Amino acid sequence: RESKGPGGGPLDVVSCFKFKHRLDILQEKMLRSLCHKDLRYVLRNYDGTRPLKEVIDEALLMDPPEDEPTLAAAPHAPGVMSVARYCRLEIIDPLADCAVFGDANLSFAVNLAQHRKVLGHVGRVIATTFENLDTLQERYKEIDDTIARLEEYYAEVHHGVDCTRIAIDSRFDGLQG
Description:
The protein has about 180 residues and is mainly alpha-helical. Helix content is about 45%, strand content about 5%. It is built from nine helices and three strands, in the order H-H-H-H-H-H-E-H-E-H-H-E. The chain has a three-stranded parallel β-sheet with strand order 1-2-3, covered by helices on one side. Helix 3 (about 35-45) packs across helix 6.
């Protein structure tokens, strides 16, 4: 079965789409340059009966549908990366909470909170750091802005958390799975 598919290592959505529709390298390049909204439109609407460029031009004119939040999520983000993230996160219950432990400058937690919001996920995001806030402010000039961004996404931020002792940390009482 694998011998009939595209070869050459790891595959993303564009590589698979290129193989399925027998596209050339220039068409692949056009697809890779699309934003999330436009790439999702092309993936849904291109069937090989019309030129790819025509479907891409049509996608550029379309507004993201308001009734499907995942199709409207991060419409102007890079397409290939956003579709890949969507494919990984769609298996996560949008009501589930998530915790990020030991994220020193909290950049991963911000990206996760932002991505969950645009996908319509409503569960809590809990972000922790091992260091206390004073230490973080010395190391990372942007930490106060990062914390403010997390709070805009209604994330909880806790400092001085030792993940090896999380079960006895009173700040996390009642949060067991």
